[in-house]
Design a protein that fits this description.
Layout lengths: L11 E4 L8 H9 L5 E2 L3 E2 H5 L3 H6 L9 E6 L3 H13 L4 E6 L4 H4 L11 H14 L4 E6 L9 H10 L4 E5 L13 H8 L8 E4 L5 H11 L3 E4 L8 H10 L9 H19 L1 H8 L3 H4 L7 H9 L3 H14 L3
Parallel strand pairs: 1-9, 2-4, 3-4, 4-5, 5-6, 6-7, 7-8, 8-9
């Protein structure tokens, strides 16, 4: 593999960047559970250039989270180039450009996957950033803007020619958002294009370790990024590593779920403050306790509780009432 900042292994399993999800506390859990590669939440180039506190905080990481990339997005070439100085000061292992986010507030301004309507512009900005950056630059993108404009194999070759070090592809178009089924055949077509030589990562609809192994074997990708399936479930990285090693899946006890969730919440409070942590942790609880019988009253309590003290008390009740 010709990207020395990446782990040298047959299939890298990484955490896909998600806004208000893949913050420093959650990344730490995923790393400890076996994630080979981490990427920050996406960060607006304009906000970095304004020294916005929240955006600067998103770049923070510990040495134990390496290798890690800082993901940036924007539509203005000048702003993107300017923010490289700020990002490089944080000393990540690589800088990831988000040409894949489909949400309206990003794509509607020509950033994220909105730029897939103007491939020449995307290539020009990417090339300028590669030339300007002293760190490796990677890209995350989608299959195209819509099914009528899927030229993924062609524009991925062109992206490679800009000098990027690796490429991640989500198997949907911008128009699809997160609906339908991710098309991994197109990701495989990029990976198996004999003219491609940079590492190719696939992303989309990987919800189990078995799927990760199957997609690696079927499409030959260099790595797999897991997004939504990791929310409230950092164990998916451990499960993937065990599956690739030929080991059976390990049962996760309720006591362990509560302990990790409690640790996650406390770390989030320490990092972001109680109010923000309480709100953002609500996205994780459903998966932390997925499958528990008659769990609805506890879930409602977790998402409605306004204080850390009350949330920790609810977690104590869960552990007491669901003893393994």
């Amino acid at each position: 593999m010709n990207a020395p900042f990446l782990p040298q292994k047959d299939c890298i399993v990484g955490l896909s960047p998600m806004d208000d999800i893949t913050d420093m506390p959650f990344r730490q859990l995923c790393k400890e559970m076996g994630a080979d590669l981490l990427i920050t939440e996406f960060i607006a180039s304009e906000a970095l250039n304004r020294d916005a506190e929240k955006s600067l905080r998103k770049m923070r990481f510990t040495a134990g989270q390496r290798p890690i990339g800082i993901q940036i997005f924007g539509a203005n070439e000048e702003e993107l180039l300017r923010c490289l100085d700020v990002v490089e000061q944080a000393e990540p292992d690589f800088i990831d450009i988000n040409w894949g986010c489909p949400v309206r507030k990003v794509a509607g301004k020509g950033a994220g996957s909105g730029i897939l309507q103007d491939i020449p512009r995307m290539l020009a900005i990417t090339a300028a950033m590669v030339k300007r950056s002293r760190l490796p630059v990677t890209v995350k993108t989608r299959l195209g803007y819509s099914h009528d404009s899927m030229m993924i194999t062609d524009f991925c070759e062109a992206l490679q020619d800009t000098g990027i070090a690796a490429l991640s592809i989500h198997g949907r178009t911008k128009v699809q958002m997160y609906s339908g089924v991710a098309d991994w055949t197109m990701i495989g077509a990029v990976k198996n294009n004999p003219r491609m030589h940079i590492p190719i990562f696939g992303n989309g609809d990987i919800t189990t370790a078995a799927q990760a192994v199957e997609n690696k074997q079927r499409y030959g990708v260099d790595g797999i990024l897991i997004g939504r399936a990791a929310i409230g479930n950092p164990w998916i990285f451990e499960q993937c590593q065990r599956a690739f090693a030929g080991l059976p899946e390990r049962e996760i006890t309720v006591a362990e779920r509560v302990a990790v969730c409690r640790r996650h919440l406390q770390a989030a409070i320490d990092f972001k403050g109680e109010r923000t942590a309480i709100f953002e942790m609500r996205k994780h609880y459903g998966n932390y306790f997925k499958g528990l019988h008659n769990f609805k009253p506890y879930r409602l309590a977790l998402v409605a509780t306004p204080t850390a003290e009350a949330t920790f008390a609810t977690l104590d009740r869960i552990e007491e009432n669901y003893r393994d």
